[in-house]
Every structure is written in C-alpha cells, then in structure tokens.
Amino acid sequence: METGETTPVTNARGQLVIIGGAEDKEGDCTILREFVRRAGGTQARIVVMTVATGLPDEVGRTYTEVFERLGVDDVRIIDTASREDGSDPRALEAIEKATGVFFTGGDQARITSNLKGTEVDAAIHRRYAEGIVVGGTSAGAAMMPDIMIIEGDSETNPRVNVVEMGPGMGFLPGVVIDQHFLQRGRMGRLISALAQQPAVLGFGIDENTAIAISDNKFEVIGEGAVTIVDESGITHSNVGEILKDEALAVCGARLHVLPHGYKFDLQTRKPILD
Amino acid sequence: METGETTPVTNARGQLVIIGGAEDKEGDCTILREFVRRAGGTQARIVVMTVATGLPDEVGRTYTEVFERLGVDDVRIIDTASREDGSDPRALEAIEKATGVFFTGGDQARITSNLKGTEVDAAIHRRYAEGIVVGGTSAGAAMMPDIMIIEGDSETNPRVNVVEMGPGMGFLPGVVIDQHFLQRGRMGRLISALAQQPAVLGFGIDENTAIAISDNKFEVIGEGAVTIVDESGITHSNVGEILKDEALAVCGARLHVLPHGYKFDLQTRKPILD
C-alpha cells in the first residue's frame, strides 16, 4: 500500500469508508449504516480500533452500541495503547476474522506512533487487500493517506507553517485528507498541506459526511459535502520561493464540491457525471 | 456602473480599494496607507462614509485619526443615517471635492437601504468614473458588486439557503465579494453566493488584506490572501435540481489563492504572472 506514489490508485480489493468526523450515531446513522452494510450487514464481524483516543472504553462502548443496534452481533474493541499491543495475538486473531475494521477519532499521531509497522498494522493492510472494509472517522480519516496532516491551524490563509505533515497509515496513497472541513474553516490548511506535494489530491470531508471507496472510485454519503482540490494542473505556486511563515500563492487549481450521491474517479481525477 | 453584466470590467477611471475587514490601524497601516497614497497622499481629501455602522461617531473618529496620522489634513465624516441625508448639500459638496471616499464596516444592508439611488450615491459614482479612489472595508467591501451578499452562514457546506443576496452599490459589477474570508470559514458561503450566477467571479478577501483595482486589474495588499473562485467553466452544477436547503454540487471550478503583491486581470479572469 505504501508505494509513495502520487496517484490515489490501489490494487486493494477492499473498501474504505472515510468519515469527516461527527457522524450521526443516534438518528438514521446513514454513514455507519453504510459501513456496516459494506462489511456484511448483520453478518459483519467488526473490530473497533480505539488507538486514536484517550478515552478508549467510552468511545469503544459508543461504537459497539451503534453497531449492535444496527444488527451486528460480533463487535470487538482493540485498544493498542502501546506498540507492544501491536503484536497481541488476540488482536491479530480478531482482525483475521473481521469483515470490517473501524478507527475512531482522537489524535491521528497516536495511530501512527502506536500502530504503524506493527503486526496488527500489517494484518489490517493484508485483510484490506483481501477485501474487507476499513473505516475511520476524524483522526481515523486523517490517517488514511501515505502522507497525512498531523495537526494544523484552521481559519487561516495558506502558509507552509500552518500544517504539520507526516507519514500516515497508507490505506489510500496519493491524497491528503482533512476532516471537520468546512465546519472548521480548513480550506487554507488543506491548500497548505498540498503545497509541498501538488500532484496529490486534496479531500476536505465535512462533518457527518463520508467517502466510500471501492474500485478506485468513491461515492459521497451524508449531510455535507466533500471539497476536492486538485493542484496537478496549477499554472503557478510560490512554494519554492517563500519562507515558512509567508503566504502561499496557488494559481489555476481545480475545485469540486460533491454532496451525497456524487461519485468521483480517482484514476481520471474527475467527478463521474451521468 | 450598474450594467447588470457578468463581466467585472468597467470604464471607470477611478480606483477601488476593497478590504476584507480588520485592517491594521495601529502598526504600519499598509492597506490604509495605500488607500491614502492612491487618493493623493498628504494632498488627499478624504470622505469617510459611516453609513454601515451603528457607531458612526466612534468609527468615524478612528478612521479620521489614522488618516490624519498618515498626513491627510482634509478628512470629513459623512453619516447618511437616513435617506434624507442622501441629498444633504454639505455631503454633496464634500464628495465633489474629495479625492478618496472610504466606506467603513458595519452592515452592508444599511449602505444600500440608506444610500442606494440617492444624490450622494450618484455623486460618488460620478466622481469614481472621473478618477477618485473609492475604498471600503468589511461591509464596505461586500457592497461593491452589483449583486452583493447581504448576510449568510459561515462554516457550512454550500446550500442555496445559507446566503441572502441582494442589490449592491455597483462599483464593481460581475463579481461577488466576501470578507473576513478564511478567518471565518466562508468558502461554502462564497460558493453558495455564486450558485445562481456562475458567470460572475467570486473574491474571498481575508482580514487585513485588500485588492486595489485600477484599469480592470487588481493587486493584492496585506497579510492574508484573496481566494478567487471562477465557476465560468464548470462542468456541472446541481443548482437547477435541488431545493433550497439541499447541498450544492459544483464540478470543475477554478481556484486561485493570491497573497500580497500578486496581480489579477479582470478581463482575462487570470492571475498576471511575470
């Protein structure tokens, strides 16, 4: 998965459900319902990964309750609170049997520092390549690319120093994912994240909104929209000329805003319009 | 000026300085300094229009102090608190002699309701056509187009009902201007404002940032950036198919982010790159 390429195309047979945070857990649960449906419906076996959060019991219980309410009998919580937990045989066995693995929100740096390169990480990637569904919300969404946003400032114009980038978990290479997107005014932060790697696609996912990816295409699900910034065809950027705290310029980027039901082709980098 | 055309090109000989709000008034005053310079420097005769604000004395005094500190001896405050004030002979005389007219922040609906169509409005437009500088910050920026944002929600994905549009003062037709732009997360609001009129250009101006327009070109001044959304070449929009509270889709818009020193050609709709 971690090819380092700047195309968001993978050969994995699995699916990804990448959620911009704050997904509905009490009403229709449109997004979590779709995750469960793709993971096998009432026959799904779901592992909830609480590695990102400092409140694993509480957050794990919340998702267990939702998935059980939707009819899933087999829900297990795995909390890799340290790297040692990343080779826990019980965790490896649960992932081996899982049809869906779900990463909760929290801090994406906890996901990479505790999990990246462990046996559990390898097992999830292998199972994903074989066909299971990997989902994640908020921090669990941010970690999906090979290079991820670790943290950054919201509500600012683009500057190199407003965002800290680092290795992600590599489920979807060639993109950058930001979440709570328009709700927290993160356009400047997403453009900053793309500054050093204009060939990757930027996806800004709103709260209670998700992209469900299979066969190198995604479909938008939920209440808000997904904002796509494509800098691959830009006519100018000043990133090579400025210092870290100076304002970025970008000319000629492509912008798409896609709400529920819209589809996007990762290979052609274009919305799929009927 | 109020041609209703969807091209931001005018024949006016004057200049516009359009500020995204919260411009520096205590430090270098980069933007207000540029306004004064363009209005004639220490020889400038400036009229401060406080029509937008409910605190005309306080706000008028603040700008008078800044302009005087920058060396302007002739600063007059005009407060058209009612439409009757829009034919005040003293105001008309001051505008006749002015080299610069500056609109403060406040509520842009107060500018149009109190001033639009009055003799003072006509005088400012005539003087602008003859060559003076018209500046405005925040509400004084929003009012510049022929169709303006009256009010709207920040930090939301685009929907038709998140923004209320209405007639503006028509100094710069063919554009929509939003202010406090990235600081308040207004990307969704700007795209909503463009939904019904994709041929116009959207300018999102950050705080302490301005565009200075002359000869159908602008230059960016200040700390942040100007975000330009150009929907004239979009491949798809769902605005004709959705209801007011449903999420907008826009595919294939053009996006530019221009910081201090960058220039943009309103006729070609492109950044001017050396």
UniProtKB/TrEMBL annotation, chains A, B:
Keywords: Carboxypeptidase, Hydrolase, Protease, Serine protease
EC number: 3.4.15.6
Catalysed reaction equations from the record: [L-4-(L-arginin-2-N-yl)aspartate](n) + H2O = [L-4-(L-arginin-2-N-yl)aspartate](n-1) + L-4-(L-arginin-2-N-yl)aspartate
Pfam families in the record: Peptidase_S51
Keyword RNA-binding: no
Superkingdom to which the source organism belongs: Bacteria
Keyword Hydrolase: yes
Top-level EC class: hydrolase
UniProt-recorded Gene Ontology molecular function terms: carboxypeptidase activity; peptidyl-dipeptidase activity
Functional summary from the UniProt entry: Exopeptidase that catalyzes the hydrolytic cleavage of multi-L-arginyl-poly-L-aspartic acid (cyanophycin; a water-insoluble reserve polymer) into aspartate-arginine dipeptides.
Family: Belongs to the peptidase S51 family.
This protein's name: Cyanophycinase
